[in-house]
Specification:
The complex is a heterodimer of chains A (293) and B (368). Chain A has 293 residues and is mostly helical. Chain A has twelve helices and no strands. The chains are: A mainly alpha (293), B mainly alpha (368).
């Protein structure tokens, strides 16, 4: 039973990571750095909560979330592609932008600087820890599906081939008639859409939006993208690994065995180790962060 | 590379080359126009946000100016915030001049403040500032430099991309500092260490009464000094020249005899050291203790300051003042519109500058 509860909790924690990391893989394989994932997630969480609140349906909430995430991703893509802005600068700024916007509109819509009122969400009133509560949440299945869908898109479709070409050698892709910029816009939109679902999961699971509720999860997803070497399945495994570490930390709370701060470091430390190449180097897409022409 | 540098310092050419005035003007325009565009865009977005909240933009902007530059307290707060931002802005700018993106100023700032606080807690309280200040400077620079040195070495040795490693280190270092503070150093019931008595630096309010209550302190002059030294280093020394050459074109610099790997890690250490000294502003100048999360985004805003200041120390000082004004302005208008408006505006400034720099350059070069 303890093991089962452990697995269930790990999955629960992993779902937002799975969504966002799938988005991260899509974006980075197309050559766009995924620094804005945190912002897309937060935008998705907020728009999802607002749409769910005013419509009364969490499904409409999901649509709202996607709109919010895609809007931010397209803003990022527009500045990075059309205006050739530095992707690192804009990526960081998008996160600050969304933090500010969501807090501003939180006060405008709900007259609160910390959280929204209760919104309709998925699952039971008190989200249980067992598999039952988990399996009834459609976002769990959507999250697992997202990983498979991204892998299929990337490796089994012409679109995926073009995405990879855009990220590895855009000049060569252009020379054979691929519209790299257009591919990158689509990849960005997809990454915004996926990450926003991760954010929506948080808001709808907790039945409310609270300020900065994504709390760095977008960066953990980025870490998983890199630690998973830009491959959807490996990135998903990385998400599960990071989530398992978090679950362990929660289970160990109160025992004082390992200070929680050290468990928090695990995803980031592993990513640095992977980048430094102690065991098998993580090599990013060749044209990551570069303009196409 | 090195010969070119020494030639220009030892033997001036017999006839001064004609100064290309148009090129100079274009360069200046390229530097200033994006900031102007960005402030205009930010003003428009600000108008929209203010109107959505049902207020009049004129009133809000007037409040913002009155609450910042309109009285001594507001001005003091602006100067205090600009002090930290100058350090983090210089840190990011030095990195960018070397072609490195230091996203880690946030944790380097915190580490600098932390190490300085540790030293401060160990020093006997009677020591005069004349002795303690150099010690604090070294401690803070060492703290920040050490944190930044890790991604520097990883970049030089393994080619690990510094953007990702510095971001990841932010999380690691902040978690580590939180642990050390929580487990060993904090005063019970708080998130901060005990008070430092050795050579704490005076606030301006102890000389000039109207500044009363504001946090501005003499670290401001350290910041201005750091800007001057950074300028001198970047543009007047061989090492600075090598750093800039590496940033412009690492392969060419390598070919010219520069050890690019060395430049990279040294630039990161220097960058982190500058951010680290910024920690003195809070720890030594304002609160006189280290507190969890005191950096509160100043490291990330340093990126904005460097970008808007075009990686030039003088530009950084001005940009720090602009961003400090916007930050403090948020508090001044909070009664009328949510202070988060200014977070949005700061982000808009960053995005607009980043987006208009290449565009402005293209248009200006075409026009010439």
């Amino acid at each position: 039973m303890i093991l089962l509860a452990f697995v269930a909790q790990t999955l629960r924690i992993a779902i937002p990571y799975l969504f966002a990391a799938s988005g991260g893989v899509m974006s980075e394989r197309a050559g766009l750095i995924g620094l804005g994932l945190e912002g897309y997630m937060l935008s998705g969480a907020f728009c999802g909560a607002v749409a769910s609140y005013y419509s009364g349906s969490p499904w409409i909430g999901l649509l709202g979330a996607m709109a919010g995430g895609v809007a931010m991703a397209l803003l990022y893509a527009l500045t990075a592609i059309r205006f050739r802005a530095d992707q690192v600068v804009v990526g960081i700024a998008i996160n600050l932008f969304v933090i500010g916007l969501t807090r501003f509109f939180l006060r405008l819509a709900f007259h609160s600087s910390s959280n929204s009122p209760r919104v309709p969400g998925f699952g039971a009133e008190q989200s249980g820890t067992g598999f039952g509560a988990l399996a009834t949440n459609p976002l769990i299945w959507l999250g697992i599906g997202a990983v498979a869908a991204m892998a299929w898109l990337l490796y089994r479709t012409p679109f995926g081939l073009r995405v990879r070409a855009a990220g590895e050698h855009p000049a060569a892709a252009i020379s054979v008639g691929i519209r790299v910029d257009r591919i990158r816009y689509v990849a960005a939109a997809l990454s915004g859409l996926l990450a926003s679902l991760g954010g929506a999961y948080l808001a709808l699971d907790q039945h409310q939006f609270s300020a900065e509720m994504t709390a760095g999860r977008g960066f953990i997803a980025l870490a998983a993208t890199i630690f998973g070497r830009w491959d959807p399945f490996r990135a998903a495994l990385a998400c599960l690994l990071f989530a398992a570490a978090e679950t362990l930390q929660i289970q160990l709370q109160g025992t004082q065995l390992i200070p929680s701060q050290f468990v928090e470091m695990i995803p980031y430390a592993l990513t640095i180790i992977a980048l430094a190449g102690v065991v098998g180097r993580a090599v990013p897409p060749a044209a990551l962060g570069k303009t196409a022409t | 590379m090195t010969t070119a540098a020494s030639e220009s310092t030892t033997a001036p050419p017999p006839i001064a080359p004609p100064v290309d005035r148009t090129a100079r003007r274009t360069a200046l325009e390229e530097a200033i126009l994006p900031a102007v565009v960005a402030l205009l865009v930010a003003a428009i977005v600000g108008d929209i946000l203010i109107l959505t909240f049902g207020q009049s933009p004129g009133t809000v902007y007037r409040l913002l100016l009155e609450g910042t530059w309109g009285n001594a307290y507001g001005l003091g707060q602006v100067l205090y915030k600009a002090t930290t931002l100058t350090f983090t802005g210089l840190a990011v700018a030095v990195g960018l001049r070397a072609g490195l993106f230091n996203i880690g100023a946030e944790s380097q700032l915190a580490a600098g403040g932390f190490v300085a606080a540790l030293v401060g807690l160990l020093l006997p309280s009677g020591l005069p500032a004349l002795i303690t200040l150099p010690l604090y400077l070294i401690a803070a620079a060492a703290g920040g430099g050490l944190v930044a040195g890790v991604p520097g070495v990883l970049k030089a040795r393994f080619g690990a991309h510094e953007v990702i490693t510095t971001i990841m280190l932010n999380f690691i270092v902040l978690a580590l500092l939180n642990y050390l503070t929580a487990a060993h150093l904090k005063v019970e019931g708080s998130l901060h260490t005990a008070e430092i008595h050795a050579g704490a630096l005076p606030r301006f309010s102890s000389y000039i009464a109207p500044f009363h209550g504001s946090a501005a302190n003499v670290v401001l002059f350290v910041a201005l000094g750091a800007a001057i030294v950074t300028w001198w280093f970047l543009f007047r020394t061989r090492r600075g020249f090598e750093l800039r050459a590496t940033g412009l074109q690492p392969e060419a610099a390598e070919y010219g005899g520069v050890d690019v790997g060395n430049v990279w890690w040294r630039a990161m250490v220097l960058s982190g050291g500058l951010a680290g000294i910024g920690g003195l502003n809070f720890v030594l100048g304002y609160k006189h203790y280290y507190e969890e999360a005191f950096a509160s985004g100043a490291g990330f805003l340093g990126i904005a300051v460097a970008i808007v200041g075009r990686n030039h120390p003088l530009g950084v000082v001005f940009a720090a003042l602009v961003f400090a004004t916007i930050s403090q302005g948020g508090l001044a208008v909070n009664a009328v519109v949510p202070k988060q408006m200014v977070d949005v505006l700061q982000a808009v400034v960053i995005i607009a500058v980043a987006a208009s720099v290449p565009e402005v350059r293209r248009i200006l070069r075409k026009a010439r």
